[in-house]
Amino acid sequence: MASGRADDSPLTGIARLRDTLRRLYHGRTKSAVRFQLAVVVIDLAIIGFFIATPVLSETPSFLWIDYSVAALVAADMIARLLASTDMLRLLRQPTSWVDIFILATLLFPQALANLGFLRILRLWSLAHSRALLTPLEQRGLIKWREPIVAVVNLVTFLFIATGFIYTFFFIDGSGIEGYIDAFYFTVTTMTTTGFGDITLPGIAGKLTSIVTMIVGISLFVKLAQAVFRPAKVYFECPSCGLRRHEPDAVHCKACGYLLKIPDDGV
């Protein structure tokens, strides 16, 4: 009888839950990959809400949606912690800091309203997580990881800059028209088109324009490099764990281990 009660103890239940979550978040089975794709789809829907937040913030149902998204983000964070073999290491990662900050803006939307545009960092967090990497590996598309990350970085900055410009320069009673103006200004500035029909006033506006141009050009260059420069294969070194190697590499450039990279480079 004692052993039966031990099997049903809360500790055993938690261990079983952690094992299930670990298989779902990090597994390679068909059910695990479907779960991971579902998580990515939900993340993209949440990111869509973040992009639309400046326009939706005045609607009556905004707080209900906001707190519902907060519950989803919190559930995902807790599940990932339980699925991790080293919780402290996971909490020290920048992606976890981003998620914690985003959760804070969702829980206190009024107090942190001016920082709401930073929620789009969730897109950057998604691009640097296993949630995106594992499906790519499953489908033999890991060589596209670097271009995808470069595109995500560019899009993330685009909407962060748009949100910042809208919040501090266009928000006063402008609604969706002001948000579109902010988006239009950001695109023309990042591409250095500079039509001049919309400008930001004062020294702060000029400094914002300068930063947007410099960072935007840098991200465009990074994207071009990721697409056109000779690709490196993704193959984890069994000795040191280095994942990126030259296509014709025989030895790992970090530790010298003899590599056996498959011909397809995946």
From TrEMBL:
Can you give the residue ranges of the Potassium channel domain?
156-226
Q: Does the keyword Electron transport apply?
A: no
Q: How does it sit in the membrane?
A: Multi-pass membrane protein
The alphabetized UniProt keywords are:
Ion channel, Ion transport, Membrane, Transmembrane, Transmembrane helix, Transport
Any Pfam family from its record, for instance, is Ion_trans_2
Primary localization = membrane
| Membrane-spanning intervals of the chain | 32-56, 95-117, 148-171
User: Where is it located?
Assistant: Membrane
What PANTHER family does the entry give?
POTASSIUM VOLTAGE-GATED CHANNEL PROTEIN SHAB, VOLTAGE-GATED POTASSIUM CHANNEL
What is the protein name given in its UniProt record?
Answer: Ion channel
